[in-house]
Amino acid sequence: MRSTPVLLLIPLLLAGCAGPPQPPPDGTRVANCGTEQIIERAPQRVVSLNQHATELLLALGLGDRLVGTAYPDDHEPPEQVAEQYRRVPLLAEKYPSFEQVLAADPDLVVGGYASAFDDTRGAGRQALADSGIPTLLLSESCADGPAGMDTLLADIRLFGEVLDLGAEAERLAAQITGRVRAVEQRIAGREPVDVFVYDSGEPAAMTLGRDGVGNDALRRAGGANVFGDVPGGFPDVSWEQVAAREPAAIVLVDYLGAPVGTKRDHLRGHPLVGRTPAARADRFSTIPLVELTEGIRFPDAVERLAADLHGA
């Protein structure tokens, strides 16, 4: 009987040696494009390094918490964010230096493309983390396979959680989904149109590949990407391959510094592409680059492409 109290004490003493249970760290644990971070509180000073990422953040309602942007790709932002977009300080026409980013005093930096965090410029994610600045990257840039609308919706919800804008994220996700579903219903049962998407290039053609969000937009709009089997977001292909796949329509990608008129003339006069069904029928259309990347213009791309390809 005397030994019972001693035996009862042993587990208590062992528990005491282990110390009290540690509370989980404050903040949001975020796994994003190969990095894990704990973002301690909703960021109040955000820098965004590509236009499509900036537009997404503004559509979420980030407003004056966005203290800098860079690398505009288009002449005009969409109407829903245009007024706010023009008020965001432009840090650089291309990517800003590491020092320019630090001067904006951000507590979060968001990239639209992986190139936003290029280590060769000294502006990689680890360099920013070493300065106490967390980062987020749109997942299209690090996807192991095809990205699409589901990728976009997941990122919207992740950003909403990190920025304490969860309700706004759900509203935006529902709006995007509704617009895309409406197009899919209008073109249901129609035969897909074979499409060659031309970004740029003369020795070879940079086109839309299998893994980019734009490929999913084209599919949902009733198009069949003739290079939808080629890995990558925007891979290079040969002109012989373009001719062999005989596209029925050509979509020209429009962005600053690359006039679509010049691209159209180049393809019309090309000895191989000029003989494709698309060029012979002069079936060209144009789409802004930002609509083919992960962002709030995804439904714009689906609507535009469906109208061009099917009149729907």
From TrEMBL:
It holds the Pfam family Peripla_BP_2. InterPro entries: ABC_Transporter_SBP, ABC_transptr_periplasmic_BD. PROSITE patterns: FE_B12_PBP, PROKAR_LIPOPROTEIN. Residues 45-312 form the Fe/B12 periplasmic-binding domain. PANTHER family: IRON(III) DICITRATE-BINDING PROTEIN, VITAMIN B12-BINDING PROTEIN. Belongs to the bacterial solute-binding protein 8 family. This is ABC transporter substrate-binding protein.
